[in-house]
Amino acid sequence: MQETKQKKTSLPLPPGSFGLPIIGETIQWFRDRNFIDKRYKKYGSIFKTSLFGRPTVYACGAEANRFLFTNENKYFVATWPKSTRILLGSYSLATTTGTFHTSRRKLIYQAFQPRALASYIPTIEHFTKKYLEKWEGMKTLTWYPELRKYTFDIASTIFVGTDGGSDTRLSVLFEDLSAGLFSIPNPLPWTSFGKALRGRNEMLKEIEKIVLRRQQESNLGEDALGLLLQAKDEDGNSLSLDELKDQIILLLFAGHETLTSALTSFCLLVAQHRDVLSRLQEEQAKLNFSEPLTLDSLKQMTYLEQVLKEVLRYISPVGGGFREVIQECEFKGYTIPKGWSIQYQIAKTHEDASIYNNPDRFDPDRFSLDKAENKQQSFGYIPFGGGLRECLGKEFARLEMKIFAAMLIRDYDWELLSNQDLNLTTIPTPKPRDGLQVNLHHRDK
Ligand code: HEM
Protein backbone atom coordinates (compact mmCIF):
# COMPACT_ATOMS: atom_id res chain seq x y z
CA MET A 1 0.00 0.00 0.00
CA GLN A 2 2.79 2.32 1.14
CA GLU A 3 4.74 1.34 -1.97
CA THR A 4 1.88 2.19 -4.33
CA LYS A 5 1.45 5.56 -2.64
CA GLN A 6 5.15 6.37 -2.91
CA LYS A 7 5.20 5.30 -6.53
CA LYS A 8 2.25 7.50 -7.38
CA THR A 9 3.46 10.66 -5.70
CA SER A 10 6.94 10.30 -7.23
CA LEU A 11 5.52 10.72 -10.73
CA PRO A 12 5.43 14.27 -12.11
CA LEU A 13 2.31 16.26 -12.83
CA PRO A 14 1.36 16.56 -16.53
CA PRO A 15 3.15 19.38 -18.42
CA GLY A 16 1.34 22.69 -18.95
CA SER A 17 0.71 26.00 -17.24
CA PHE A 18 -1.79 27.08 -14.57
CA GLY A 19 -1.75 30.67 -15.86
CA LEU A 20 -2.75 33.44 -13.47
CA PRO A 21 -3.66 32.94 -9.80
CA ILE A 22 -7.38 32.04 -9.27
CA ILE A 23 -8.64 32.67 -12.84
CA GLY A 24 -5.92 30.47 -14.33
CA GLU A 25 -6.32 30.26 -18.12
CA THR A 26 -10.11 30.66 -18.11
CA ILE A 27 -10.06 33.86 -20.20
CA GLN A 28 -7.87 32.30 -22.91
CA TRP A 29 -10.15 29.23 -22.85
CA PHE A 30 -13.19 31.39 -23.62
CA ARG A 31 -11.44 33.62 -26.17
CA ASP A 32 -9.19 31.29 -28.09
CA ARG A 33 -10.82 28.76 -30.44
CA ASN A 34 -7.47 27.00 -30.71
CA PHE A 35 -6.89 26.79 -26.95
CA ILE A 36 -6.65 23.00 -26.92
CA ASP A 37 -4.83 22.68 -30.27
CA LYS A 38 -2.05 25.03 -29.22
CA ARG A 39 -1.41 23.19 -25.97
CA TYR A 40 -1.75 19.80 -27.64
CA LYS A 41 1.00 20.78 -30.09
CA LYS A 42 3.20 22.17 -27.33
CA TYR A 43 2.79 19.52 -24.62
CA GLY A 44 1.37 16.42 -26.29
CA SER A 45 -1.78 14.41 -25.61
CA ILE A 46 -1.94 15.11 -21.88
CA PHE A 47 -1.46 18.53 -20.31
CA LYS A 48 -2.61 20.59 -17.36
CA THR A 49 -4.20 24.02 -17.14
CA SER A 50 -6.47 25.81 -14.66
CA LEU A 51 -10.08 26.63 -15.52
CA PHE A 52 -12.85 28.13 -13.39
CA GLY A 53 -10.57 28.14 -10.35
CA ARG A 54 -9.68 24.47 -10.65
CA PRO A 55 -6.59 22.62 -11.89
CA THR A 56 -7.69 20.71 -14.98
CA VAL A 57 -6.09 17.96 -17.06
CA TYR A 58 -6.82 17.51 -20.76
CA ALA A 59 -6.39 13.92 -21.88
CA CYS A 60 -6.67 13.37 -25.65
CA GLY A 61 -6.90 10.22 -27.75
CA ALA A 62 -8.43 6.73 -27.72
CA GLU A 63 -6.21 5.49 -24.89
CA ALA A 64 -7.17 8.40 -22.66
CA ASN A 65 -10.84 7.78 -23.47
CA ARG A 66 -10.52 4.16 -22.44
CA PHE A 67 -8.78 5.18 -19.19
CA LEU A 68 -11.56 7.63 -18.36
CA PHE A 69 -14.54 5.55 -19.40
CA THR A 70 -13.37 2.36 -17.69
CA ASN A 71 -12.60 4.11 -14.40
CA GLU A 72 -15.89 5.92 -13.94
CA ASN A 73 -16.82 5.93 -10.22
CA LYS A 74 -13.36 4.53 -9.33
CA TYR A 75 -11.11 7.48 -10.19
CA PHE A 76 -13.64 9.82 -11.79
CA VAL A 77 -17.20 11.07 -11.42
CA ALA A 78 -19.21 13.41 -13.64
CA THR A 79 -19.05 17.05 -12.70
CA TRP A 80 -20.98 20.09 -13.91
CA PRO A 81 -20.76 23.82 -13.21
CA LYS A 82 -22.88 24.95 -10.23
CA SER A 83 -25.38 26.75 -12.51
CA THR A 84 -26.01 23.52 -14.48
CA ARG A 85 -26.41 21.42 -11.33
CA ILE A 86 -29.01 23.78 -9.89
CA LEU A 87 -30.91 24.22 -13.14
CA LEU A 88 -31.05 20.53 -14.02
CA GLY A 89 -32.13 19.64 -10.49
CA SER A 90 -30.76 17.35 -7.80
CA TYR A 91 -32.37 14.17 -9.22
CA SER A 92 -31.17 14.69 -12.77
CA LEU A 93 -29.43 11.64 -14.23
CA ALA A 94 -26.63 13.86 -15.55
CA THR A 95 -25.63 15.11 -12.11
CA THR A 96 -26.05 11.96 -9.99
CA THR A 97 -23.22 9.44 -9.59
CA GLY A 98 -22.48 5.92 -8.30
CA THR A 99 -25.13 3.25 -7.73
CA PHE A 100 -28.03 5.72 -7.71
CA HIS A 101 -26.99 6.85 -11.18
CA THR A 102 -26.67 3.25 -12.46
CA SER A 103 -30.05 2.23 -11.16
CA ARG A 104 -31.78 5.36 -12.51
CA ARG A 105 -30.12 4.89 -15.91
CA LYS A 106 -31.62 1.42 -16.16
CA LEU A 107 -35.04 2.74 -15.26
CA ILE A 108 -34.99 5.64 -17.72
CA TYR A 109 -33.58 3.38 -20.44
CA GLN A 110 -37.03 1.78 -20.56
CA ALA A 111 -38.07 4.78 -22.66
CA PHE A 112 -35.22 4.11 -25.13
CA GLN A 113 -35.51 0.37 -25.78
CA PRO A 114 -36.05 -0.74 -29.39
CA ARG A 115 -39.79 -1.31 -28.84
CA ALA A 116 -40.20 2.18 -27.42
CA LEU A 117 -38.11 3.68 -30.22
CA ALA A 118 -40.26 1.98 -32.85
CA SER A 119 -43.35 3.54 -31.28
CA TYR A 120 -41.84 7.05 -31.69
CA ILE A 121 -41.44 6.69 -35.47
CA PRO A 122 -44.92 7.99 -36.43
CA THR A 123 -44.41 11.15 -34.32
CA ILE A 124 -41.02 11.82 -35.91
CA GLU A 125 -42.46 11.22 -39.39
CA HIS A 126 -45.41 13.49 -38.67
CA PHE A 127 -43.24 16.46 -37.67
CA THR A 128 -40.69 15.83 -40.42
CA LYS A 129 -43.42 15.94 -43.06
CA LYS A 130 -44.99 19.02 -41.50
CA TYR A 131 -41.70 20.94 -41.41
CA LEU A 132 -40.56 19.85 -44.87
CA GLU A 133 -43.83 21.16 -46.31
CA LYS A 134 -43.44 24.38 -44.36
CA TRP A 135 -39.87 24.89 -45.64
CA GLU A 136 -40.94 24.06 -49.18
CA GLY A 137 -43.45 26.91 -48.89
CA MET A 138 -40.76 29.26 -47.53
CA LYS A 139 -38.33 28.40 -50.39
CA THR A 140 -35.51 30.36 -48.72
CA LEU A 141 -34.81 29.70 -45.06
CA THR A 142 -32.25 29.85 -42.26
CA TRP A 143 -32.12 26.24 -41.22
CA TYR A 144 -30.64 26.24 -37.70
CA PRO A 145 -33.48 28.11 -35.91
CA GLU A 146 -36.03 26.06 -37.88
CA LEU A 147 -34.33 22.82 -36.88
CA ARG A 148 -34.37 23.95 -33.25
CA LYS A 149 -38.16 24.23 -33.43
CA TYR A 150 -38.41 20.90 -35.24
CA THR A 151 -36.37 19.00 -32.62
CA PHE A 152 -38.19 20.71 -29.77
CA ASP A 153 -41.61 19.79 -31.23
CA ILE A 154 -40.59 16.15 -31.42
CA ALA A 155 -38.94 16.04 -27.99
CA SER A 156 -41.78 17.79 -26.20
CA THR A 157 -44.38 15.57 -27.88
CA ILE A 158 -42.53 12.37 -27.00
CA PHE A 159 -41.08 13.27 -23.58
CA VAL A 160 -43.65 15.70 -22.17
CA GLY A 161 -46.76 14.48 -23.96
CA THR A 162 -47.70 17.85 -25.52
CA ASP A 163 -48.77 18.03 -29.16
CA GLY A 164 -45.82 19.94 -30.54
CA GLY A 165 -44.38 22.57 -28.25
CA SER A 166 -42.20 25.01 -30.16
CA ASP A 167 -45.02 27.61 -30.25
CA THR A 168 -45.97 27.16 -26.61
CA ARG A 169 -45.00 28.78 -23.32
CA LEU A 170 -42.99 25.65 -22.51
CA SER A 171 -40.61 26.45 -25.36
CA VAL A 172 -40.07 30.06 -24.18
CA LEU A 173 -39.37 28.81 -20.64
CA PHE A 174 -37.06 26.15 -21.99
CA GLU A 175 -35.05 28.71 -23.99
CA ASP A 176 -34.64 30.81 -20.79
CA LEU A 177 -33.49 27.73 -18.92
CA SER A 178 -31.00 26.72 -21.65
CA ALA A 179 -29.52 30.22 -21.84
CA GLY A 180 -28.55 30.12 -18.15
CA LEU A 181 -27.22 26.57 -17.91
CA PHE A 182 -23.58 27.66 -18.11
CA SER A 183 -23.71 31.01 -16.34
CA ILE A 184 -22.55 32.63 -13.09
CA PRO A 185 -25.08 31.35 -10.52
CA ASN A 186 -26.29 34.76 -9.42
CA PRO A 187 -30.05 34.40 -8.80
CA LEU A 188 -30.97 38.11 -9.18
CA PRO A 189 -34.01 38.23 -11.51
CA TRP A 190 -32.31 40.13 -14.38
CA THR A 191 -29.28 37.84 -14.66
CA SER A 192 -29.31 34.98 -17.15
CA PHE A 193 -29.14 32.55 -14.22
CA GLY A 194 -32.05 34.33 -12.47
CA LYS A 195 -34.17 34.13 -15.64
CA ALA A 196 -33.19 30.50 -16.13
CA LEU A 197 -34.18 29.66 -12.55
CA ARG A 198 -37.59 31.26 -13.09
CA GLY A 199 -37.88 29.35 -16.37
CA ARG A 200 -37.09 26.10 -14.56
CA ASN A 201 -39.65 26.72 -11.80
CA GLU A 202 -42.36 27.59 -14.31
CA MET A 203 -41.48 24.56 -16.42
CA LEU A 204 -41.75 22.32 -13.37
CA LYS A 205 -45.27 23.64 -12.77
CA GLU A 206 -46.29 23.06 -16.39
CA ILE A 207 -44.84 19.55 -16.43
CA GLU A 208 -46.51 18.75 -13.09
CA LYS A 209 -49.92 19.72 -14.48
CA ILE A 210 -49.36 17.46 -17.50
CA VAL A 211 -48.19 14.54 -15.37
CA LEU A 212 -51.09 14.83 -12.89
CA ARG A 213 -53.55 14.98 -15.78
CA ARG A 214 -51.95 11.91 -17.37
CA GLN A 215 -52.08 10.00 -14.07
CA GLN A 216 -55.89 10.47 -14.00
CA GLU A 217 -56.23 8.68 -17.34
CA SER A 218 -56.99 4.97 -17.34
CA ASN A 219 -54.30 4.32 -19.97
CA LEU A 220 -50.98 5.99 -19.15
CA GLY A 221 -49.94 5.87 -22.80
CA GLU A 222 -47.06 4.42 -24.79
CA ASP A 223 -45.02 7.59 -25.33
CA ALA A 224 -41.88 8.20 -23.26
CA LEU A 225 -43.86 9.99 -20.55
CA GLY A 226 -46.23 7.03 -20.27
CA LEU A 227 -43.30 4.61 -20.11
CA LEU A 228 -41.50 6.68 -17.47
CA LEU A 229 -44.68 6.85 -15.38
CA GLN A 230 -44.89 3.06 -15.42
CA ALA A 231 -41.15 2.30 -15.13
CA LYS A 232 -39.94 0.59 -11.94
CA ASP A 233 -36.45 0.07 -10.49
CA GLU A 234 -35.05 -3.27 -9.16
CA ASP A 235 -36.95 -2.80 -5.88
CA GLY A 236 -40.23 -2.12 -7.65
CA ASN A 237 -40.20 1.64 -6.93
CA SER A 238 -41.33 4.14 -9.56
CA LEU A 239 -40.03 7.68 -10.04
CA SER A 240 -41.46 10.22 -7.59
CA LEU A 241 -43.19 13.25 -9.12
CA ASP A 242 -40.22 15.51 -8.29
CA GLU A 243 -37.72 13.14 -9.83
CA LEU A 244 -39.82 12.56 -12.91
CA LYS A 245 -39.95 16.32 -13.52
CA ASP A 246 -36.13 16.63 -13.27
CA GLN A 247 -35.58 13.71 -15.64
CA ILE A 248 -38.00 15.15 -18.20
CA ILE A 249 -36.17 18.48 -18.14
CA LEU A 250 -32.89 16.61 -18.68
CA LEU A 251 -34.25 14.68 -21.67
CA LEU A 252 -35.47 17.91 -23.25
CA PHE A 253 -32.13 19.60 -22.65
CA ALA A 254 -29.76 16.72 -23.52
CA GLY A 255 -31.42 15.94 -26.80
CA HIS A 256 -32.30 19.35 -28.11
CA GLU A 257 -29.11 21.32 -28.67
CA THR A 258 -27.01 18.31 -29.75
CA LEU A 259 -29.52 16.96 -32.26
CA THR A 260 -30.14 20.38 -33.77
CA SER A 261 -26.41 20.79 -34.28
CA ALA A 262 -26.09 17.31 -35.85
CA LEU A 263 -28.97 17.87 -38.29
CA THR A 264 -27.63 21.28 -39.30
CA SER A 265 -24.19 19.76 -39.93
CA PHE A 266 -25.78 17.04 -42.07
CA CYS A 267 -27.57 19.64 -44.22
CA LEU A 268 -24.37 21.68 -44.54
CA LEU A 269 -21.98 18.85 -45.37
CA VAL A 270 -24.27 17.12 -47.84
CA ALA A 271 -24.87 20.42 -49.66
CA GLN A 272 -21.09 20.87 -49.87
CA HIS A 273 -20.52 17.33 -51.20
CA ARG A 274 -22.83 16.83 -54.15
CA ASP A 275 -21.31 13.41 -54.94
CA VAL A 276 -22.46 12.23 -51.49
CA LEU A 277 -25.93 13.67 -52.09
CA SER A 278 -26.21 11.82 -55.44
CA ARG A 279 -25.31 8.51 -53.80
CA LEU A 280 -27.82 9.16 -51.01
CA GLN A 281 -30.51 9.92 -53.58
CA GLU A 282 -29.67 6.74 -55.51
CA GLU A 283 -29.98 4.68 -52.35
CA GLN A 284 -33.39 6.16 -51.52
CA ALA A 285 -34.58 5.62 -55.11
CA LYS A 286 -33.43 2.00 -55.03
CA LEU A 287 -35.03 1.21 -51.69
CA ASN A 288 -38.15 3.15 -52.61
CA PHE A 289 -39.59 3.18 -49.08
CA SER A 290 -42.54 5.28 -48.12
CA GLU A 291 -44.02 6.01 -44.72
CA PRO A 292 -44.65 4.37 -42.33
CA LEU A 293 -40.94 3.59 -41.97
CA THR A 294 -39.84 0.79 -39.67
CA LEU A 295 -36.64 0.05 -37.77
CA ASP A 296 -36.01 -2.67 -40.37
CA SER A 297 -36.45 -0.43 -43.40
CA LEU A 298 -34.19 2.21 -41.82
CA LYS A 299 -31.53 -0.44 -41.24
CA GLN A 300 -31.34 -1.05 -44.98
CA MET A 301 -30.22 2.54 -45.63
CA THR A 302 -26.58 1.60 -45.23
CA TYR A 303 -24.99 4.45 -47.16
CA LEU A 304 -27.08 6.96 -45.21
CA GLU A 305 -25.85 5.28 -42.04
CA GLN A 306 -22.23 5.85 -43.15
CA VAL A 307 -22.93 9.49 -43.97
CA LEU A 308 -24.53 10.12 -40.57
CA LYS A 309 -21.60 8.48 -38.80
CA GLU A 310 -19.19 10.68 -40.73
CA VAL A 311 -21.22 13.82 -39.94
CA LEU A 312 -20.91 13.03 -36.21
CA ARG A 313 -17.18 12.39 -36.60
CA TYR A 314 -16.44 15.41 -38.76
CA ILE A 315 -18.42 17.93 -36.69
CA SER A 316 -18.95 16.35 -33.27
CA PRO A 317 -21.92 18.05 -31.56
CA VAL A 318 -20.25 17.56 -28.17
CA GLY A 319 -16.56 18.48 -27.92
CA GLY A 320 -15.77 16.50 -24.77
CA GLY A 321 -16.82 15.86 -21.19
CA PHE A 322 -15.60 16.91 -17.74
CA ARG A 323 -15.02 14.62 -14.78
CA GLU A 324 -13.86 15.23 -11.23
CA VAL A 325 -10.92 13.13 -9.98
CA ILE A 326 -12.08 11.37 -6.77
CA GLN A 327 -8.95 9.29 -6.27
CA GLU A 328 -5.38 10.08 -7.27
CA CYS A 329 -4.33 8.04 -10.31
CA GLU A 330 -1.61 7.73 -12.94
CA PHE A 331 -1.81 7.99 -16.66
CA LYS A 332 1.04 7.94 -19.20
CA GLY A 333 3.65 8.44 -16.51
CA TYR A 334 1.94 11.39 -14.84
CA THR A 335 0.09 11.79 -11.55
CA ILE A 336 -3.44 13.11 -11.71
CA PRO A 337 -4.25 14.40 -8.22
CA LYS A 338 -7.55 13.98 -6.38
CA GLY A 339 -9.78 17.06 -6.55
CA TRP A 340 -8.65 18.09 -10.05
CA SER A 341 -10.88 18.16 -13.12
CA ILE A 342 -10.15 16.05 -16.17
CA GLN A 343 -11.62 16.43 -19.64
CA TYR A 344 -11.80 13.81 -22.39
CA GLN A 345 -11.79 15.02 -25.98
CA ILE A 346 -14.31 13.85 -28.57
CA ALA A 347 -13.41 16.21 -31.41
CA LYS A 348 -9.66 15.70 -30.96
CA THR A 349 -10.09 11.91 -30.97
CA HIS A 350 -11.97 12.16 -34.27
CA GLU A 351 -9.14 14.19 -35.82
CA ASP A 352 -6.50 11.61 -34.90
CA ALA A 353 -4.57 10.59 -38.02
CA SER A 354 -3.49 7.33 -36.36
CA ILE A 355 -7.17 6.27 -36.44
CA TYR A 356 -8.57 8.07 -39.49
CA ASN A 357 -7.01 8.40 -42.96
CA ASN A 358 -6.92 12.06 -43.94
CA PRO A 359 -9.08 13.05 -40.98
CA ASP A 360 -9.65 16.53 -42.47
CA ARG A 361 -11.58 15.02 -45.39
CA PHE A 362 -15.34 14.44 -45.23
CA ASP A 363 -15.46 10.84 -46.41
CA PRO A 364 -18.43 8.62 -45.51
CA ASP A 365 -16.69 5.64 -47.15
CA ARG A 366 -14.34 5.41 -44.18
CA PHE A 367 -17.31 3.78 -42.40
CA SER A 368 -17.99 1.22 -45.13
CA LEU A 369 -17.96 -2.41 -43.98
CA ASP A 370 -14.58 -3.16 -45.58
CA LYS A 371 -12.80 -0.06 -44.21
CA ALA A 372 -14.56 0.49 -40.85
CA GLU A 373 -11.85 2.92 -39.70
CA ASN A 374 -13.77 3.51 -36.49
CA LYS A 375 -13.18 -0.10 -35.46
CA GLN A 376 -9.38 0.21 -35.71
CA GLN A 377 -9.01 1.40 -32.11
CA SER A 378 -11.57 0.91 -29.39
CA PHE A 379 -12.79 4.25 -28.02
CA GLY A 380 -11.57 5.90 -31.24
CA TYR A 381 -15.09 6.87 -32.34
CA ILE A 382 -17.03 8.44 -29.47
CA PRO A 383 -19.60 11.03 -30.61
CA PHE A 384 -21.85 9.79 -27.80
CA GLY A 385 -19.16 9.46 -25.12
CA GLY A 386 -18.63 6.01 -23.61
CA GLY A 387 -18.75 3.73 -20.59
CA LEU A 388 -21.28 4.10 -17.78
CA ARG A 389 -22.26 7.59 -18.88
CA GLU A 390 -22.54 6.99 -22.61
CA CYS A 391 -25.37 9.00 -24.13
CA LEU A 392 -28.66 7.46 -23.07
CA GLY A 393 -30.46 8.97 -26.04
CA LYS A 394 -27.97 7.67 -28.62
CA GLU A 395 -30.39 5.38 -30.47
CA PHE A 396 -33.15 7.95 -30.30
CA ALA A 397 -30.81 10.55 -31.80
CA ARG A 398 -29.73 8.18 -34.57
CA LEU A 399 -33.36 7.32 -35.30
CA GLU A 400 -34.46 10.94 -35.60
CA MET A 401 -31.45 11.84 -37.73
CA LYS A 402 -32.09 8.96 -40.08
CA ILE A 403 -35.80 9.60 -40.56
CA PHE A 404 -35.18 13.32 -41.10
CA ALA A 405 -32.38 12.66 -43.59
CA ALA A 406 -34.23 9.93 -45.51
CA MET A 407 -37.39 11.99 -45.99
CA LEU A 408 -35.40 15.11 -46.91
CA ILE A 409 -33.19 13.38 -49.47
CA ARG A 410 -36.00 11.41 -51.05
CA ASP A 411 -38.11 14.44 -51.91
CA TYR A 412 -36.01 17.60 -51.71
CA ASP A 413 -32.88 19.31 -52.91
CA TRP A 414 -31.22 22.38 -51.42
CA GLU A 415 -28.42 24.82 -52.20
CA LEU A 416 -26.46 27.04 -49.87
CA LEU A 417 -27.01 30.77 -50.39
CA SER A 418 -23.87 32.68 -51.28
CA ASN A 419 -22.58 35.52 -49.07
CA GLN A 420 -23.12 33.81 -45.75
CA ASP A 421 -20.64 32.99 -43.02
CA LEU A 422 -20.33 29.21 -42.86
CA ASN A 423 -17.58 29.25 -40.23
CA LEU A 424 -18.66 27.29 -37.20
CA THR A 425 -19.27 28.78 -33.78
CA THR A 426 -18.77 26.01 -31.26
CA ILE A 427 -20.39 27.11 -27.99
CA PRO A 428 -22.56 25.45 -26.80
CA THR A 429 -22.63 23.19 -29.91
CA PRO A 430 -21.27 23.73 -33.46
CA LYS A 431 -23.33 25.65 -35.98
CA PRO A 432 -22.57 27.92 -38.96
CA ARG A 433 -22.28 31.53 -37.83
CA ASP A 434 -25.18 32.69 -40.06
CA GLY A 435 -27.39 29.72 -39.18
CA LEU A 436 -27.16 27.98 -42.59
CA GLN A 437 -29.15 29.86 -45.21
CA VAL A 438 -30.50 27.75 -48.06
CA ASN A 439 -32.91 27.50 -50.97
CA LEU A 440 -35.00 24.37 -50.69
CA HIS A 441 -37.26 22.90 -53.35
CA HIS A 442 -39.24 19.71 -54.04
CA ARG A 443 -37.41 17.48 -56.53
CA ASP A 444 -40.56 16.61 -58.51
CA LYS A 445 -42.06 20.08 -58.73
C1 HEM B 1 -26.55 13.70 -31.98
C2 HEM B 1 -27.10 13.88 -30.81
C3 HEM B 1 -26.43 13.63 -29.49
C4 HEM B 1 -25.11 13.61 -29.14
C5 HEM B 1 -23.91 13.83 -30.06
C6 HEM B 1 -25.03 13.32 -27.72
C7 HEM B 1 -23.84 13.21 -27.01
C8 HEM B 1 -23.77 12.88 -25.67
C9 HEM B 1 -22.53 12.71 -24.95
C10 HEM B 1 -21.14 12.88 -25.52
C11 HEM B 1 -22.85 12.37 -23.68
C12 HEM B 1 -21.87 12.01 -22.56
C13 HEM B 1 -21.43 13.23 -21.79
C14 HEM B 1 -20.35 12.89 -20.76
O1 HEM B 1 -19.56 11.95 -20.94
O2 HEM B 1 -20.27 13.62 -19.78
C15 HEM B 1 -24.29 12.35 -23.57
C16 HEM B 1 -25.00 12.05 -22.43
C17 HEM B 1 -26.37 12.02 -22.37
N1 HEM B 1 -27.26 12.17 -23.41
FE1 HEM B 1 -26.76 12.57 -25.33
N2 HEM B 1 -26.30 13.17 -27.24
C18 HEM B 1 -27.18 13.32 -28.27
C19 HEM B 1 -28.55 13.22 -28.21
C20 HEM B 1 -29.26 12.88 -27.09
C21 HEM B 1 -30.69 12.71 -27.04
C22 HEM B 1 -31.63 12.86 -28.24
C23 HEM B 1 -31.02 12.44 -25.74
C24 HEM B 1 -32.37 12.18 -25.11
C25 HEM B 1 -33.50 12.37 -25.63
C26 HEM B 1 -29.79 12.40 -24.98
C27 HEM B 1 -29.71 12.11 -23.65
C28 HEM B 1 -28.54 12.03 -22.93
C29 HEM B 1 -28.48 11.77 -21.50
C30 HEM B 1 -29.68 11.54 -20.58
C31 HEM B 1 -27.13 11.77 -21.15
C32 HEM B 1 -26.54 11.55 -19.74
C33 HEM B 1 -26.25 10.10 -19.52
C34 HEM B 1 -25.66 9.81 -18.17
O3 HEM B 1 -25.08 10.70 -17.55
O4 HEM B 1 -25.80 8.65 -17.74
N3 HEM B 1 -28.76 12.68 -25.83
N4 HEM B 1 -24.83 12.65 -24.82
Note the overall shape.
globular
Q: How many β-strand runs?
A: 12
Number of helices, where a helix is a run of at least 4 consecutive DSSP H or I residues:
17
CATH class: Mainly Alpha
Helix content percent band: 40-55%
* Succession of helices and strands: HHHEEHEHHHEHHHHHHHHEEEEHHEEEE
Bound ligands, named by name, code or SMILES = protoporphyrin IX containing FE
What is the oligomeric state here?
Answer: single chain
Domain module tally: 1
* Derived structural class: alpha+beta
Instruction: Write out the CATH superfamily name.
Output: Cytochrome P450
How would you sum up this structure in a few lines?
With 445 residues, this protein is α+β, with helices and mostly antiparallel strands. It has helices spanning 2-10, 26-31, 35-43, 62-69, 82-88, 98-109, 114-138, 143-160, 169-180, 192-216, 224-230, 241-272, 274-287, 295-299, 302-314, 346-350, 394-411, and strands spanning 46-51, 54-59, 76-78, 140-142, 320-325, 329-331, 334-336, 341-345, 412-416, 424-425, 431-432, 437-442. Protoporphyrin IX containing FE binds at residues 78, 93-94, 105, 250-251, 254-255, 258-259, 262, 317-318, 321, 383-385, 389, 391-393, 396-397.
